[in-house]
Amino acid sequence: MSKLPQWVGRLGTGLTRLAHRLESQQAEMRGREGDGDAGPRTPPGPGPSEERPRAAESAESRKSPEGPETPEGAAGEGETARPEQPASVPAPPAYAPAVSARPDPVAAVPWGVRVAAEAAWRLLVLGGTVWVLMRVISSVQLVVLSFTVAILITALLEPTVTRLRRRGVPRGLATALTFIAGFVVMGLVVWFVVWQVMENVDEVSGEVQAGIDDLRRWLLHSPFHVTEKQINHVAKSLREAVGANTEQITSAGLEGVTVVVEVLTGILLTMFSTLFLLYDGPKIWNWTLKLVPAQAREGVAGAGPRAWSTLTAYVRGTVIVALIDAIFIGVGLFFLDVPMAVPLAVFIFLFAFIPLVGAVVSGALAVVVALVTQGVFTGAMVLIVVLAVQQIEGHVLQPFILGRAVRVHPLAVVLSVAAGSLIGGIGGAVVAVPLVAVANTVVVYLRSYSQENALRAVPGPHGATASGTAPTAPPGLPPGEGGA
After folding, report:
1. 465: DSSP letter
2. How far is 179 from 182, CA to CA, in rounded Å?
3. N- to C-terminal Cα distance for the chain?
């Protein structure tokens, strides 16, 4: 009980000190507010009533074992005064150099370099994808080439199936009739060419030998001063080369057997694929659309029919143009009395499926046969006939029959034929140009489709009518059929 008065006294002393501090702070705030009107004011000292509690407080603190308490701002015994902390960090001096912040690394790269880098890595990815695709195609070259030829044959025969179905013929029967008739006609053409070549090979060989003798006599009496010894030396070298490479020729014959097997396999794959494309073409296309992502499915579904129309127009137009070329050149060869006029005309028809390059090769073959068998005059006349027919084909027939739908630049034709021949030989050269024409049609449609979607996404101006904001039809389509 003796400690209770001491505790109450210390509590009262603490409350008194707290009140004194509050009064001192209020006085300082009033002095700061009135600093502009009057001079600096000193805080009022403690009154006589406050001195007594402070004296009592000091006495209590001396009696208390806890030690004295030092007031705020004063240093106790044996302690050094603490430095005041600044209210804010001072500004740097005027002579200090300005340090600029480091720029963003992306902003430091020039715009042209960034664009070149973005295009470079995208081209690298595209080139790698094309390289992998070419390796895959090379691994299954026979299958890819057979299926591509089957698509071309289907594009040629499918209109016949459609006509038969419109006349009430069931789809299965229409497909079977068209398939059998188409491959019978193609087989007869191949058989006719082989038969004509075998029938006339002896005659042509004799005429070629006679032509070589004429060439030899011309060289002996020509201004080139070629001697008979030099001609015999060249002939002897050729015989020795043939004798030295007998093993290679034999191995080539064995490889020829393998080639025959591959050709037969390719023919069977082509026939099988053509049959099912004619019968189940729409179902196969719908199944293929399910493999496309949903976001791009609508655009691909619109591009497919247009690509098929382009391919059908190309194949039909090429067949008509090739038939006209073969007929006119064959008639010219017949009237000029060139041997094997009909087989040469069939060769011209087949080579016409290779644009530009095929016409040059078949025309050169006809000129060489006429030159060797009938002489220089006949060879020159055949050359005139071939050039005239090819000029009519390039400037009249192709623009009129093929039209703008399958127009491809000549540079693209030459490059595609060269690339196709390197990848797939003669078959690759045949299918290269139609694939390029189809790809061109698809790209043009997808570009117009994306532009149409972008116009639909942009809201029309205030007060715009429906006709003013309606999307336009893609190129090559009549108005009203532009919607996907």
Report:
1. -
2. 5
3. 101
